[in-house]
């Protein structure tokens, strides 16, 4: 810092005045000359010299809690896919954290009055990571790929609704035709599962594209080592970020490595040891401790979509009796589970949808409040008695045993242990088994279970159609194996109308029906406890809750 000194000219001015009197003599009566003592000089502003700000960048390691079996968003189902692929792909339409749809790869769009035709006007100058230009042909290729039966899409195909075909109007105009109106369509195309893939890359890799993802996003896949790590590097050509991001041009981070931490006990140590900079699904007790250390920040994120729930198989003894299923609901003290396992971070769930989901119905709140007496009475009404004194009730000589399949994510094993103990109180013996996610999905499809957990994030209640429509019993995700013509009709009607009042009424019927039939045991509304190093700046999560926007993230030196 430096300043300019004041300069006093008073004495100099006096001398000049005296000299003038001598030259002009003899002047009889000189006028009195008033000389200012000082001549003010404007003080210059202080000049502050600071160090040049460090460029925003760096490398981070992001901990994932589920080992993915493949990384193709058109094929896969898990939320874990979206955590890293959201940085690899751009959607046609972005959705802000407030739920507003804004331009993405489509600069604008139009919807026909009957809700069956969506016309997307595409951004020009966008290229995939392999140099392929993004255009209307790529839109058509991506959507047609999803509905190809050979791909065996698990989630994306359902998110497309009644897709019919895409017309390439011109190079930068794509018109998508639906067989019937589908209200969640814009929500769907805003998510990574309907990502725009490089046609050239898919043709190059064939079936192996499942391990070689090529999008238009701010990061490119550098390396994927199955079950070990995924490394992304900055896309230097990226220049089409949505306006709600905090900067334009390439992303700040140079590299991101995603590693897997399926074992809950390893997550906090990985953060403390500096092996990971960001970690999701940190156990509540660890999250609190890490935040208190001052080295980490806690970012709890509410997840819309399904609550954490256990599906009850209606086609397998003894959960094929609605009275047994209702007894199990009354026997599970969900508030105790939330307090013990989640340390109060998560609200108790009452139905199939998280309270953070649009069209959630409060009509289910209060159903099946913990009541052991009611639970035992329902079992007795269903004909179950403990005839041999071993504490397990039987019917027709068959003990009330249930197969509870568990997975390692979301504190599910701990929840399963508590449920096991609670069911024992009413004479039901729960046999538990922890499986990998793919193995559990396969077992559920085959109906090997009585109970199996699930929680899928979604920002539209149409997620209920995926899990409760009768068409998904045989090979899909209807793991309660329950079909009902009325519920099918409500679910179908709710996506055919854009009237929010009608949608709310229909979804309330669906949620009530699910709970009347005791198709699930809801446990908690999902809140993802993300923990990040204090050096990681700019981290935000999308409306869906799981997916980080890593474009604005940088590491503070």
Report on this structure.
Helix 9 packs antiparallel against helix 11 and helix 15 runs antiparallel to helix 16. The strands form 8 sheets. The protein has a 7-stranded mixed β-sheet, with helices on both faces. It has a 4-stranded antiparallel β-sheet with strand order 4-5-7-6, with helices on one face. With 557 residues, it is α+β, with helices and mostly antiparallel strands. The chain is built from 16 helices and 24 strands. It has helices spanning 10-23, 79-85, 136-146, 156-159, 185-189, 199-205, 267-272, 284-292, 322-331, 334-342, 372-381, 412-424, 437-445, 463-468, 485-496, 500-516, and strands at residues 59-64, 93-95, 101-103, 106-111, 117-122, 163-170, 173-178, 219-225, 229-234, 255-260, 278-279, 296-302, 308-312, 394-395, 398-399, 401-406, 429-434, 451-454, 520-524, 527-533, 536-537, 540-541, 548-549, 554-555. 46% of the residues are buried. Strand 14 (394-395) and strand 15 form a beta hairpin.
Computed structural class? alpha+beta
Strand order, main sheet: write it out: 8-9-10-1-11-20-12
- Please state roughly what percent of the residues sit in beta strands, choosing from under 5%, 5-15%, 15-25%, 25-35%, 35-45% or over 45%: 15-25%
What does the largest sheet look like? 7 strands, mixed
- As a percent range, the share of helical residues equals 25-40%
| Cα shape | globular
- Rg calc: 32 Å
Low-confidence stretches: 1-44
Q: How far apart are the first and last residues' alpha carbons, in Å?
A: 25 Å
Number of helices: 16
Q: Count of DSSP E strands?
A: 24
Average pLDDT: 90
